[in-house]
Amino acid sequence: MHIAVVGCGHGEIDKIYDVIAKIEEKQGIKVSAVLCCGDFQSVRNMTDLRCMACPIKYQHMHDFHRYYSGEKQAPVLTLFIGGNHEASNFLQELPYGGWVAPNIFYMGYVGVVKVGPLRVAGISGIYKGHDYLKGRHEYPPYNQGTIRSVYHYRNLDIFRLKQIKQHVDIVLSHDWPKGIHQHGDFNRLLRQKPFFRDEIERNELGSRPLSEILEAIQPSYWFSAHMHVKFAAHISHSPPDNRPTDDEIEHSTSAEVAADDVVTNSSKSEAQASRATKFLALDKILPRRQFLQIIEFPTSSNDEQVTFEYDAEWLAILKSTNNLVSVKDKPSFMPGPGYMPRSDFSATTEEMDEVLTLFEKDLSIKNNFQVTAPVFKPGEHPRQAKPCENPITKDFCYKLGVVDPLSMLVSEEMMNLSISALDEDYPEDVESQMDITMNCTSRTDDSLNYNPDEISLDVDDDQGESPSELQQSEDNARLSRSKLVLPPPKNGGDSSSLTTGEAKEQEGSRIFKRSTLVLPPPKHSENDEDNIEVRSDTKDAEAESTSLFFLDTGGEPEVKRRRDWMS
Ligand code: 5GP
Ligand code: MN
């Protein structure tokens, strides 16, 4: 089975498929799936484009909209995680992942899926200490702060990943785990990226939460992007306390066997005692840049049409941690050791059985893509972006019994408005809406124990923020000055404009009128000023090159077998 791994996509979807087609022809192979490590840019139209953190002069529609509209078809199953240049309004509609176009699947804020026999985990976004503990409080239209913070991953995402106990074959992240440079040829890395030197010397290159995940789940492979350079590393792990279990070794996937193959001359017991992760970061899609790598995984199954499924352990973790979802613009802490009633959310057999029952024992991911936003028309003007409920998320939340953070946020914002706007008795329908809201917000996040393992808000690892995020468009500022929208009037109100995300309780009632949620304008970030940073020349040049056309294919990557891609 051949998997194509791609670095930063930057909207150059056609190029990915062109290169894969050439490799397939030249090598006589068939690629079963593409894994893109972020900055994919699933931009459907001008409105989405304005929701992407990137100066207007670098905002181009690129290729994705043709796959969205159906004009083009992705020739191979394509999975991607979010980076720091995305149509954030669109990705926010799919917090648990879903199809953004036929055959193109976004993995959500964080997710685990099965591609054939491979268990693939992905985490979207990049790390920023100052947003790490906050809830998912952002919604479109974004202001200068939220257009950037929307793609910063949160402690809940990391906490959920840490609950995984079964072996993971592949992890995808946009930024790199911290300290990864120590496990590869970092002199070469420094020659290619000399401006990393200071951060490397201070051991500040990369994301601390990601290095914790790497240590906790010890996947066979980890693929990243964002730094715009190819870099390979080999990490030997010390054996964790609670794995690998004999049972796990017994039932290892073929990819694990592949990983073990590399640990040459080691007996099986040694291989059991210590695991290794092969890390590979790839470049962005530009001529003569190493942005794509084919990796061969030995499998017994028919590679032409791989199966694509949800993962029972992951679904169980999503469900059991549902009460930890926060949409507040303030810190919340994950349950620390000893927290009652529960601090360990690793999935039990009963919980996995329960999700299997909820999914009627069919975890296959169906193609339930629908066009939900206007397709791009040349010459169109951007509209004001609004929070929208995506039918894929609605179905998923309903089935699993989890909240949609965006819908929950709308409920909470409406609730706040209800309280501040009404100084008389609440009209009947607002009262009933409040009940709904209270149900969905009956969480315990504020009362959770302080966890000493958490990164404190004072810690700010803000290295490597993209230059292209640093400027904000006048358009965005203008769009965010929308009119305040009050709760629906008595009787004329439509309770569908409020949603709890507790989909089961809402059965039979239409949650959204036309899947668009009306919210008040976003609050301006107090530290908007802080978000404006000076662009460095190097980074300027990088950003400039994003808009280059592919004048030649000299950068076409070669196929490497899994044994020699470390070289
Ligand atoms: P993007 O494509 O996301 O706008 O920007 C990526 C750029 O930022 C690349 O040029 C990459 O080398 C740089 N970059 C990403 N992360 C870091 C980091 O942690 N430190 C430094 N010095 N540069 C970074
Ligand atoms: Mn990036």
UniProtKB/TrEMBL annotation:
Designated name of the protein: Lariat debranching enzyme
Job description of the protein: Cleaves the 2'-5' phosphodiester linkage at the branch point of lariat intron pre-mRNAs after splicing and converts them into linear molecules that are subsequently degraded. It thereby facilitates ribonucleotide turnover.
Segments for region (Disordered): 235-269, 442-567
MF terms in GO: metal ion binding; RNA lariat debranching enzyme activity
Cross-referenced Pfam families: DBR1, Metallophos
InterPro entries on file: Calcineurin-like_PHP, DBR1_C, Dbr1_N, Metallo-depent_PP-like
SUPFAM superfamilies: Metallo-dependent phosphatases (SSF56300)
Top-level taxonomic group: Eukaryota
Native species: Orchesella cincta
Compartmental location: Nucleus
Keywords carried by this UniProt record: Hydrolase, Iron, Manganese, Metal-binding, mRNA processing, Nucleus, Zinc
Comp. bias intervals (Basic and acidic residues): 243-253, 532-542, 557-567
Compositional bias per record (Polar residues), positions renumbered to this chain: 465-474
Record-level GO BP terms: mRNA splicing, via spliceosome
Needed co-factor(s): Zn(2+); Fe(2+); Mn(2+)
Protein family (similarity comment): Belongs to the lariat debranching enzyme family.
Gene Ontology CC: nucleus
Main location: nucleus
Span of domain Lariat debranching enzyme C-terminal: 264-406
Regions of compositional bias (Acidic residues) in chain numbering: 455-464
